[in-house]
Design a protein that fits this description.
single chain, 311 residues, Nitrilase/N-carbamoyl-D-aminoacid amidohydrolase, 10-stranded mixed β-sheet, 6-stranded mixed β-sheet, 18 strands, globular
């Protein structure tokens, strides 16, 4: 299939790119469900971010998407620890209420700055992946398990997420959605295959990695990691992404990707501007690949893989 890209020609912040696998039609009429994977450039301006994200959601819905995926930090990306904390909210706050107004499409909100249970005393937050159904109900919340504490001065990367974020207490079960059974992860979780494997064994057909990868780590590892998770779990990968400069001290790699269960990249939003990729989800492909190469049947029991620890 050929990827069709519609590019905005006006010099306007609201412009974005539409990518789709169907070059013959603007709107999808396929019997297969369609997922929309978004790429945005969040800033500390929450109102502007909300407007940009809602524009992408409405565009994706008009083009036939059953479920729309927004990246980590869709609500905002702060310019300092203090700003990041001050802008955070509860799940019942104004930001999430804007997405629970029955938008008539399922949503994956890939990384919300959620105030923690002891906010008043410790000023710490969760990085939360929220699933909202087409009626506006929150049906699942996964809180990021693996926090990005990385110092690579030679590459200009210095982030310590644990200085203000609480690691999530548990994995959550995959969610049944109109596009299939979706397993929830966030960004840095992609480097820990134990998580995706657990979700696949619990029935996930689609794995999600909404992200805000740095330019240095993204250019080196982003596509390789996502394709590896797709291949080893024989699952679709939907990875919404942040792109470009958020403020003076932080930029993201972009390249929101969709990968099929054989490891083929179906869509890539590039590394320059916001956009959305629409792809059909073929669950028969998932089932066929798993039947023809039954990795779960070939996998040894857990004790086998831990046997070296006992020697």
């Amino acid at each position: 299939m050929t990827q069709l890209t519609y590019r905005c020609v006006q010099n306007d912040a609201s412009c974005f790119t539409i990518c789709t696998l169907k070059p013959v039609s603007i709107m999808s009429t396929s019997p297969r469900p369609v997922a929309a994977v978004c790429q945005v450039t969040a800033t500390p301006d929450k109102a502007a971010n909300l407007s940009a994200c809602k524009q992408l959601v409405e565009e994706a819905k008009w083009r036939g998407a059953s479920m729309v995926f927004l990246p980590e930090g869709f609500d905002y990306i702060g310019s300092s620890r203090e700003e990041t904390l001050s802008l955070s909210e509860n799940l019942t706050g104004d930001t999430i209420s804007q997405y629970t107004q029955k938008l008539e499409v399922w949503l994956s909100l890939g990384g919300f700055h959620e105030r923690g249970p002891a906010w008043e005393s410790d000023q710490r937050i969760y990085n939360s992946h929220i699933i909202i159904n087409d009626k506006g109900d929150i049906v699942s919340v996964y809180r990021k398990s693996h926090l990005f504490d990385v110092e690579m001065p030679e590459k200009g990367v210095s982030l310590k997420e644990s200085s203000f974020t609480i690691p999530g207490p548990s994995i959550v079960s995959p969610v049944q959605t109109p596009i299939g059974k979706v397993g929830l992860c966030i960004c840095y979780d992609v480097r820990f295959p134990e998580l995706s494997g657990a979700l696949q064994r619990d029935g996930a057909e689609i794995l999600t990695y909404p992200s805000a990868f740095t330019v240095a780590t993204g250019s080196a590892h982003w596509e390789a990691l996502l394709r590896a998770r797709a291949i080893e779990n024989q699952s679709y990968i939907l990875a919404a992404a942040q792109v470009g400069a958020h403020h003076e001290t932080r930029a993201s790699y972009g390249h929101a990707l969709v990968v099929d269960p054989w490891g083929a990249v179906l869509a890539d939003c590039g590394g320059e501007k916001p956009g959305v990729a629409l792809v059909e989800i073929d669950l028969e492909k998932v089932r066929g690949i798993r039947k023809n190469m039954p990795l779960q049947q070939h996998r040894r029991n857990t004790s086998f893989y831990h046997s070296l620890e006992k020697s």
